[in-house]
Amino acid sequence: MTETLPPCPECSGVYTYEMGALLVCPECGHEWSPASAPAEPAGQGPAAGVKDAVGNVLADGDTITVIKTLKVKGSPSGIKAGTKVRNIRLVDGVDGHDIDCKVDGFGPMQLKSSVVKKA
Question: Protein YjdM C-terminal domain spans which residues (predicted)?
Answer without folding.
Answer: 50-119
